[in-house]
Design brief:
- This protein has about 350 residues and is α/β, with parallel strands linked by helices.
- The chain folds into two domains: about 5-155, Alpha-Beta Plaits (2-Layer Sandwich); about 180-345, Vaccinia Virus protein VP39 (Rossmann fold, 3-Layer(aba) Sandwich).
- Helix content is about 30%, strand content about 25%.
- The protein has eleven helices and 14 strands.
- The strands form two sheets. A seven-stranded mixed β-sheet has the order 2-3-1-4-7-6-5. It has a seven-stranded mixed β-sheet with strand order 10-9-8-11-12-14-13, with helices on both faces.
- Helix 10 (about 275-285) runs parallel beside helix 11.
- It is globular, with a radius of gyration of 22 Å.
- The two termini are about 35 Å apart.
- Bound molecules: S-adenosylmethionine.
């Protein structure tokens, strides 16, 4: 397949376009990207008929910062008859085997209006495509509804993609959590730590430090996992969270604080210059003050991919110069606005 459709947070199309252009060129696949502001998706047009397949095989999806989901396009159906959307989809798929059927739409106001339609189509499509569904197939058939009459039909590989059709998990705000930011850390764990490793990386009795912790949404997540947390912030922490007995609150400057003993986890959600946060994280990791880290990097207004790639490259170069082997995984999460979230772990994890 020649075209690869990638979804993103609306407003970040040009950043995703720049990123996919860089990453495809780096593996010798050339093409151009169609991207319109606020559409919530972009389309990479490859140089040959198998460009999209090559990208799906060679680019690890987890490494694409601004992409939420992707599909290799089999057919772009335009001006579909609203009375019969099923027949052109079945025709386009022409025997394509799949594990299950996925439907998604752009994360825009118009896109959200399509959720009712996609739900309505679920059963009839499953029935019409029943012979295509094989439990062991390596891809999901994916229908991306740009509108009710404009449908991109394609495939999303099972093993190299986000595990949710829309590209993000639906999370509910826990009523006891002290802030809405709590969902950022919960999503980060689901998006950035592969499922088989999650339980062994997030364990009760681990020690954690939360830099810029108040009022405590991230600390709350760590406490839920049974960890002991040192919360650094000049601001007040949520009282009920402090009553858990698992949190020590220190009113200190996060940039000056040093842990007495190394910890398992460092998390950091400060509104600060990204380069400054990156340096702070480097220090903690290079000095071995923490094993794992999750932190936010605020994005600039423009050329966000350029800034992100430079910061991540600089961090990697610092680790290498210090003889440390860390793997960085960065994503713009659903709960991230003008920021991305980064997970750092020793390379063998
Ligand atoms: C976005 S809030 C953190 C929200 C928190 N993650 C939550 O879920 O509730 C950023 C926090 O960083 C703190 N902060 C900013 N600069 C700091 C510094 N140099 N040292 C300690 N805390 C700092 C602020 O006081 C603020 O409470």
């Amino acid at each position: 397949m020649q075209q690869l459709l990638l979804t993103c947070r609306p407003g970040f199309e040009s950043d995703l376009a720049a990123e996919i252009q860089d990453k495809s060129a780096a593996i010798g696949e050339f093409g151009f990207v169609r991207a319109k502001p606020n559409d919530g998706f972009v389309v990479f047009e490859g140089q040959d008929a198998s460009s999209a397949d090559t990208l799906l095989q060679k680019l690890p999806f987890a490494d694409i910062v601004f992409a939420r989901q992707w599909l290799a396009v089999i057919a772009h159906l335009e001006q579909v008859d609203p009375q019969d959307r099923i027949s052109p989809i079945v025709d386009a798929l022409a025997g394509q085997a799949c594990r299950s059927l996925w439907m998604s739409y752009p994360d825009t106001n118009e896109g959200k209006g399509l959720s009712k339609l996609t739900r309505k189509l679920e059963r009839p499509l499953e029935k019409a495509l029943a012979q295509h569904i094989h439990p062991k197939a390596s891809a999901n058939v994916h229908m991306f509804f740009e509108s009710g009459t404009n449908i991109w039909v394609g495939v999303t590989p099972r093993k190299n993609a986000a595990p949710w059709a829309m590209g993000f998990p639906r999370l509910r705000q826990p009523s006891a959590a002290p802030s809405r930011s709590t969902l950022k850390l919960e999503e980060a764990w689901l998006q950035l730590i592969p499922e088989p490793q999650r339980a062994s990386l997030l364990k009760p009795f681990q020690k954690a430090v939360d830099l810029g912790a108040a009022p405590g949404g991230w600390t709350w997540q760590l406490v839920q996992r049974g960890m002991q947390v040192i919360a650094i912030d000049n601001g007040p922490m949520d009282k009920a969270l402090m009553d858990s007995g698992q949190v020590t609150h220190l009113r200190e400057d996060a940039f000056a604080y040093k842990p007495v003993r190394p910890v398992d986890w460092l998390v950091c959600d400060m509104v600060e210059k990204p380069a400054r946060v990156a340096e702070l994280m480097e220090r903690w990791l290079v000095k071995g003050w923490t094993r794992f880290a999750i932190f936010n990097l605020k994005l600039p207004m423009k050329r966000r991919w350029l800034e992100v790639s430079q910061i991540l490259e600089r961090m990697e170069a610092e680790f290498e110069a210090a003889g440390c082997r860390y793997r960085l995984r960065a994503k713009q999460l659903y709960h991230d606005r003008e920021e991305i979230t980064v997970f750092a772990a020793p390379e063998h994890y």
